[in-house]
């Protein structure tokens, strides 16, 4: 079957090798075409004139060849520049695919690969910074986010408070009803925490039955009130066969001072939490009570 002009055109568009061959073939023969045209015009055949013509035609042919090659590999240079930009700054790889030849195929493949890799990296980061059971952040995520919040609070001279809470006698639930029930309780606590916080608050499961809430733009008294609302909501949870009131938590509240790091904030909130535990559990304590006891 003889290929049609449309088939040849499709082959030409999809083959970088054929494009380069055609370009080089035409440009290499420009001097020959020029000589034939010169001789056919009857302008004579003086050696000097022919030599000058050959030189000019060779320069023109070489220039056209270089310009054509530059145009053909321009998408490859754009791809290289985009990859360098991606390596330096991340983000997506937004490259239009304007050809169906090997460079177009490579560009599309690289863009697809980068998009998939970005998606995989985001999923891995989410898995590495999210507690799978509760859907809250984990300790690593909290450490990453709190540094930004502390910096912002310092720049804008705004308060920031932290609430640390621990489920009371959680080991008894695991021992009496099994770890599946314990997981149900932790999942319910995670859902409750998310519904009771503002959109800019940070909540994380620190491990086991311990949780942390970071409250930007919040003074100690307001943080105490938020912790009290959480305490009441937890005490109202009912997860059969556990009756209402079996799930309680003790809370420690601390307002960050200038220059505080996360570890110090957690340490101070933990001290307040143990005041709540020692005073009978299912209550909120803050660092003012620490000063009263010392």
Order of helix and strand elements from N to C terminus: HHHHHHHEHHEEHEHEH
> What's the number of extended β-strand segments?
5
In whole angstroms, how far apart are the ends? 99 Å
Low-confidence stretches: none
Classify the secondary structure makeup into a structural class.
Answer: alpha+beta
Largest sheet features: 5 strands, mixed
Mean model confidence by pLDDT: 88
Domain count, please report it.
Answer: 3
Q: What portion of residues is helical? A: 55-70%
Oligomeric composition of the shown chains: single chain
The CATH architecture category of the largest domain equals 2-Layer Sandwich
- Provide the β-strand percentage band: 5-15%
Keywords:
alpha+beta; 5 strands; 294 residues; 5-stranded mixed sheet; Alpha-Beta Plaits; 64% helix; elongated
């Amino acid at each position: 079957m003889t290929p049609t002009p449309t088939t040849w055109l499709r082959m030409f568009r999809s083959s970088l090798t054929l494009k380069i061959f055609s370009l080089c073939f035409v440009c290499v023969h420009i001097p020959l075409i020029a000589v034939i045209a010169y001789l056919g015009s009857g302008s004579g055949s003086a050696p000097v004139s022919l030599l000058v013509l050959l030189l000019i035609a060779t320069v023109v042919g070489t220039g056209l060849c270089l310009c054509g090659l530059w145009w053909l590999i321009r998408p490859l240079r754009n791809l290289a520049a985009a990859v360098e930009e991606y390596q330096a700054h991340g983000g997506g790889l937004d490259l239009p695919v304007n050809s169906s030849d090997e460079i177009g195929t490579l560009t599309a493949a690289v863009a697809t690969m980068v998009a998939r890799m970005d998606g995989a990296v985001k999923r891995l980061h989410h898995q590495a910074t999210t507690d799978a059971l509760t859907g809250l952040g984990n300790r690593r995520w909290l450490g990453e986010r709190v540094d930004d919040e502390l910096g912002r609070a310092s720049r804008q001279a705004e308060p920031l408070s932290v609430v640390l809470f621990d489920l009371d006698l959680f080991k008894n639930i695991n021992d009496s009803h099994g770890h599946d029930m314990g997981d149900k309780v932790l999942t319910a606590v995670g859902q409750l925490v998310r519904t009771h916080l503002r959109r800019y608050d940070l909540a994380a499961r620190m491990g086991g039955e311990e949780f942390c809430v970071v409250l930007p733009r919040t003074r100690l008294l307001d943080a105490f009130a938020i912790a009290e609302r959480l305490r009441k909501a937890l005490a109202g949870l009912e997860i059969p066969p556990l009756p209402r009131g079996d799930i309680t938590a003790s809370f420690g509240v601390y307002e960050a001072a200038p220059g505080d790091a996360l570890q110090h904030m957690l340490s101070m909130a933990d001290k307040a939490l143990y005041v709540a535990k020692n005073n009978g559990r299912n209550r909120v304590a803050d660092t003012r009570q620490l000063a009263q006891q010392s």
